[in-house]
Amino acid sequence: MYDYLIKNALIIDGTGAEAYQADVAVSEGKILDICSGESAAARRVFEANGMILAPGFIDLHSHSDLGLILSPFEPNKISQGVTTEVGGNCGFSLFPVTPEGRPAVQQLMRAYGAEMEIPWSDGRGYYAALKQRGFGVNYLPLVGHGLLRLNAMGASAAEVSTTQLKAMENLLTAELEAGAWGFSTGLAYMPGCFAGFEELKALAAVTARYGGVYTSHIRNQGNDLLSSVDEAIALAETTGVSVIISHLKAYGVSNWGKVEAALEKIVAARTKGYKVMADFYPYDSSESTLMYEMPEWAKAGGVEGLIRRLNDQQEREKVRQEIESRGELSWDRVVVSGVKNEAHSGLIGRSITQIAQDAGPDREPFEVVTELLKGEQGGVSTICRLMSEADVDEIAVAGVTALGSDSYALPEGQLFTGHPRNWGAFPHFYDTYVQKKKLLKPEQAVYKMSGMAADFLGLSDRGKIKPGYWADLVLFDPESIAGPASFTAPDTPSTGIDMVMVNGVVQYEHTKLQREPSGEILLKSKES
Ligand SMILES: [Zn+2]
Questions:
Q1: What's the 476 CA to ligand 1 centre distance in angstroms?
Q2: How far is the CA of 248 from the centre of ligand 1 (A)?
Q3: How high is the pLDDT of residue 122?
Q4: Do 259 and 152 have their domain in common?
Q5: How close is the Cα of 504 to the center of ligand 1, in Å?
Q6: What is the domain-level CATH number for residue 203?
Q7: How many Å lie between the centroid of ligand 1 and the Cα of residue 247?
Q8: Residue 326 sits in the same domain as residue 415
Q9: How far is the CA of 84 from the centre of ligand 1 (A)?
Q10: For residue 268, what are the contacts with CB-CB under 8 A and spacing of at least 6?
């Protein structure tokens, strides 16, 4: 007898192949059989009635590393049909933390609004902490380059020394040995922005030896988008590492249209035999921080360094001139979405320009920016309406892109004022590109949410509906699937997701979360 039988489903198997009608049998966590007509009895039968059964969605770009500790069952993710997330992106993971690096790591966490003291020192310790609590969705770890650098040299903006680089390589090697799938950079963030090409190349070479992946929040997504894409591709070319360019976009009105050339560069690299792709989220606004918009040199020494410069009239003027001369930013398109200081909570939802106007006729947007950065110790989140819909469409339908929400596990029971992708990215993508714009076939959309990521990463037993694969499954209604979360109501749950199974455990059904510890930490085996 099977554990579960999902009857009369329209199977989209995650390979891109055409949908077909069948029953799927699940036992002991795995897909046992795909059959039609008479099949054996099951402890429980789901009548799919023509709904689509797809592989559970793989979130190729996630930031749930801390959220998983605080909110291990991730209602905002599982309710979208996500069954696996790739964590540790944009240069930020929660390990390793060496005794020497700990103060710098904790300071960076505080800048992101996280007060937690990290009790572990490496990936193994983090995985053990997750397992001890239990969690809902599979987690696939990457090592953040930012952590490697903080451990080796603190928040210093200096070029890495030979000894420091060796220390970074050793830390990365130890994590790859322990099962991490590769490393990530946040080259627009501290401390990633201080890293030069040779530093990245050394770490990419270590990763390539393990058959791992390098995910890159590239140096610049605006004026220098194309040279930044070149840099990521050059790492694939010089080391053989697999590269995923993170949340591909063209940032700033003056840069709209550049995604075409960026996509062409990726296609050209693949034609030459390099493993390169990009992930994206299906919205034309990004979520970031005010600090992110500051010039690199102004961030040397971390938040303290930035605030010191903003307090100095000459330095502040230099920062202002540099931002203005870049021309990517329009302060009327930058909206405050999160603050720590209660006194600033009334600013949430308002653009920097609006805040300046409210404060009086002589008030300039840049003054608002500096005062907010100082008053919040750097920790101001923003929503930036700086992408074009046409660019997002082009990226969404490209053959070299897969979905990554760029979101995190949200703490339950708390007011949430951030980006709608946190609750809606996957259903919103399907609804927008299959149902509304009709730019993708259901099979193509599902491939971009499952099999494509699995193939690229080398996940050989997930991301597809095949006998012997783990039973990570999502059953959804193609008519009603949608992600109604919006910038004004970002915590609106998705619709149309009927049932989600993780490792053969029914974790989410008819909007109800089971809170079973069904998630696994997916470690990379050294042979693959
Ligand atoms: Zn990023």
A1: 29
A2: 9
A3: 98
A4: yes
A5: 32
A6: 3.20.20.140
A7: 7
A8: no
A9: 18
A10: none
In a domain, 13, yes or no: no
Please tell me the number of Cα atoms within 13 Å of 11 on its side-chain side. Answer: 21
Domain boundary pick from 383, 409, 435: 383
Same domain, 138 and 270: yes
| Structure-block tokens of residue 471 | 């039973």
Q: Enter the tokens of residue 157.
A: 């903006």
Among 90, 175, 176, 404, CA closest to 277? 404
407 within a domain of the structure (yes/no): yes
Q: Are 257 and 111 members of one domain? A: yes
Do 228 and 299 share a structural domain? no
In a domain? residue 37: no
Domain end among 408, 443, 461: 461
Dist. CA 48–CA 45, nearest whole Å: 9
Assess whether 307 and 343 both reside in one domain. Answer: yes
Question: Within 13 A of 3's CA, how many CA atoms are on the CB side?
Answer: 13
Beta carbons of 113 and 85 less than 8 angstroms apart: no
How far away, in angstroms, is 80 Cα from ligand 1 center? 21
State residue 269's pLDDT score: 98
Q: Return the bridge partners of 332, or none.
A: none
Per-residue pLDDT, 527: 56
Q: Are 366 and 320 in contact (CB under 8 A)?
A: yes
Residue whose C-alpha is closest to residue 23's, from 40, 504, 479: 40
The SS3 call for residue 475 is strand
Q: Name the packing angle between helices 259-271 and 225-239 (round to 10°).
A: 10
Q: Pick from 257, 145, 131, 254: which is nearest to 201 by CA?
A: 145
CA–centroid distance, residue 89 to ligand 1 (Å):
7
CA of 246 to the centre of ligand 1 (A): 6
Q: CA 457, CA 528: separation in Å to the nearest integer?
A: 10
**How many distinct structural domains can be found in the chain?**
2
Q: Ligand 1 mean position to 87 CA, how many Å?
A: 12
Give me the domain span that covers residue 378: 291-383
Pull the structure tokens for residue 172.
């990365």
Tell me the C-alpha distance between 457 and 452, whole Å: 9
Mean pLDDT, each 10-residue run in order, the chain (528 residues)? 95 98 97 85 94 98 94 96 98 97 92 85 97 97 98 94 98 98 95 96 98 97 97 98 98 95 98 98 93 89 92 96 90 92 91 94 94 93 95 98 96 87 98 98 98 97 98 98 94 97 98 96 81
Same domain, 297 and 416: no
The answer to whether 309 and 298 have CB atoms below 8 angstroms apart is: yes
Query: Cα(217) to centroid of ligand 1, in Å?
Result: 5
This prediction's pTM: 0.94
Query: Which residues, including other chains, have CB under 8 Å from residue 271's CB and lie 6 or more apart?
Result: none
